[in-house]
Design goal:
With about 120 residues, the protein is an alpha+beta fold. It has five helices and four strands. Helix 2 (about 25-40) runs antiparallel to helix 3, helix 2 (about 25-40) crosses helix 5 and helix 4 (about 75-85) runs antiparallel to helix 5 (about 105-124).
Length: about 120
């Protein structure tokens, strides 16, 4: 597991470095940003009624992305098909923020994607 996370962070750093030289982020860069955003958040993730740390949630999303990339050709499809609900039960993922508010993961990640794109536009 530790080796897997090292590879993930190494790949993420490479992708972030590459993204600085292009005008727009690729779907893969956007998806990796979302996974990194989850990992660095202080949120609690609720999946099928069970609470998970942000790090565990990021690892789970990275695993789903590796195994089902064909369902995530865009960042929006990643959110819709892989990051917002359980593929097993169909139940939506929830996110409890540090202020106690409870959100659907789909809304939370969609808002972050909009913010990421806005920041990319400002810096390019």
């Amino acid at each position: 597991m530790r080796l897997c996370m090292r590879r993930y962070w190494f790949i993420a750093l490479i992708l972030l470095s590459i993204s600085q030289f292009s005008d727009a982020a690729t779907p893969e860069q956007e998806i990796n940003h979302l996974i990194d955003f989850v990992a660095k958040s202080d949120a609690v993730f609720i999946r099928n009624g069970t609470e998970h740390s942000s790090q565990d949630a990021a690892e789970h999303l990275a695993m789903k992305y590796r195994k089902a990339t064909r369902y995530a050709k865009t960042a929006e499809k990643f959110i819709e098909n892989l990051a917002s609900k359980s593929s097993w039960s169909g139940k939506p993922y929830k996110v409890r923020l540090s202020n106690g508010s409870l959100l659907n993961a789909k809304d939370w990640l969609s808002n972050e994607l909009k913010e990421y794109r806005r920041n990319q536009h400002i810096h390019n």
